[in-house]
Structures are given as structure tokens and as C-alpha cells.
Amino acid sequence: MKDKVVLITGATDGIGLEAARQLDVQGAQVVLVGRNPAKIESALAGLSPRARAITADLSLQAEVRRAAAEFRAMSPRLDVLINNAGNGFGLRQVTSEGVEMTWALNHLAYFTLTGELLDLLKASAPARVVVTSSSAHYRGRIHWQDVELHRGYTMLKAYSQSKLANVMFAFALARRLAGSGVTANALHPGFVRTNIGATRNGPLAGLVQRLVFRRGISVEEGTRATMRLATDPDLAEVSGRFFTRHGEKEALPAAQDVEAQERLWALSEGYAARLLRQDKPASQ
Ligand SMILES: NC(=O)c1ccc[n+]([C@@H]2O[C@H](COP(=O)([O-])OP(=O)(O)OC[C@H]3O[C@@H](n4cnc5c(N)ncnc54)[C@H](OP(=O)(O)O)[C@@H]3O)[C@@H](O)[C@H]2O)c1
User: Fold this and answer.
1) What is the pLDDT of residue 35?
2) CA–centroid distance, residue 271 to ligand 1 (Å)
């Protein structure tokens, strides 16, 4: 990975932080995205001086677009984009842009960040887009009439829907990128001992989450699929697939439904366009 430029979101903790560390050791120029300056500083302290960082709250589309612009100003190329930041929320929350938090962070951020950097990835080909999904996608469905779950919100429903959207997005992206030299694949890292969900759901939910996740695999083990998709030369031309740390696995049939993928793509484009207009009203 020497001299490869890798942009990785959610790189201040868990799987993203460990992937950043491993990629840095392999010689990559790692650019972290995080939202917490103190955690960014601490992450950078564990990496070589090559590593850089961008601060952005990825639940907000305006911040996602700004992060992409900052990256462009920083680097003329992008060899690997790892969309990894994600969380589950015990109570339904809405971002300051008015979007349900899980949908905004776990899906729309991946969609817009990738879209904003796609020309750079193509110009840097061979390049890769890695999409961190979950086995939770097998339990998911897209609630087409109410993706933001105004009615009947549960963390599981919102999380598994967003993780299904991740797989569908990766597959639709791979189709669009065919022949470009840029691959797009999705992954389930495993049930990994990270802090996911621990801070956002109140102290009691956080404690329960920690106890449950204590049974998970180590973060090193949980980073295996991410690292493989980002670096394995054998996967240089593999695209539009779903992987776990044990290898390729068939995704949920609903995730493979091309019509549904395209419907999701159009829905996501609609969100991105609406939130862009909201951010920059026509009068400006
Ligand atoms: N752990 C598992 O068992 C498991 C299983 C399946 C899939 N996954 C997926 O793996 C990915 C990484 O999860 P993890 O387990 O490593 O979780 P984690 O330890 O909680 O790390 C999540 C990362 O995302 C960042 N993040 C969260 N909200 C953000 C926001 N609004 N803006 C910018 N960054 C934000 C966090 O930043 P802070 O450091 O500021 O919190 C952190 O760096 C997620 O997509 C998750 O769905 C995890």
C-alpha cells in the first residue's frame, strides 16, 4: 500500500481506527475522517506523520460535502475510499438538517461522500470503494413509504435497513463503475468488540451494549474483511460482491434486486439534492 492514498471514515474508533493503523503500517497515506477533534488527535498520535485528518459530522450532508472538498484540496488522488462510520440509535433522532439519524449517517453519508469523490477515484484507477455494511442487512428491508421510520421506529429496524441500503448501494455503484478500473464491494466485519452504540443511547443502554459486545471478536480480527477489500491484489478486479472476514458470501436476495437498487439510488439522489438546496437556497 506504499504511497496509496486511503480516505477512511469513522477512523477515530473501532474498526476504522484499526484499519487506519494497519494501512499506515503498510505505507499508505491515510486520511482519517472523524467528528471529535480530541479523538482525531489521539488517533493521529498513533500513526506516522504521513497521516492527515478531516473533521466532519457525517450525519450532515453539508459536512459530508465539505469533507469531500477538503480532501480534494489535500490530495490530487484517491486510491481507496473506505465508507465505515456508522452507529445505531436506541431512540429516534433527527439531524439538524431534518433527517432521521441512522438513515443520514449510515446510508446518505456513504452515498454523498462517494458521489463527491467518484471522479477522483476514476482518475486514480485502479481504485476501490469499500462499504462497511453488516450481517444485520439480512434482517433488513427498505421501508419505501417511510425510510426515516416516523412510525414504528426501533434501532434494529433503522440499523438493518441502513445496512441493507449499504449493500444495495455498493452493488449499484459497482454496476455504474464497470470498466472504469474502480471496484465497489460491501462487507460484514463480524460481531466485533467495539464501542458501537455505546455513547449515543444513554448510560444504561451504553452499559448493556458494552456487555453484549464484550462477547465479540477482537478489533484486529474484525478489521480483516476491510483490509482484504482495501488491499488484497487478488480482489483487484472483483466488484459488486459481499464479503465477511471468512470470504465472499451471498447477500440477501433483496439486496441483489437491481430494480430496488435503482429505486434506492434515485431516492438517495433526491435526498442529496434536496439537502443541497436546503443548505444553499437559490437566492444565495
Ligand atoms: N462492531 C460490530 O460488531 C459491527 C458489526 C457489523 C457492522 N459494523 C459496522 O462497522 C462500522 C464501524 O463500526 P465500529 O463497530 O467500529 O463502531 P465504533 O467503534 O463506534 O466506531 C464508529 C466510528 O464512526 C464514527 N462516527 C459515528 N458517528 C459519526 C458522525 N456523526 N460523524 C462522523 N463520524 C462518526 C465514530 O466517531 P467517534 O469516535 O466520534 O464516536 C467512530 O470513529 C459501522 O458502519 C458499523 O455499522 C460493526
Assistant:
1) 97
2) 22
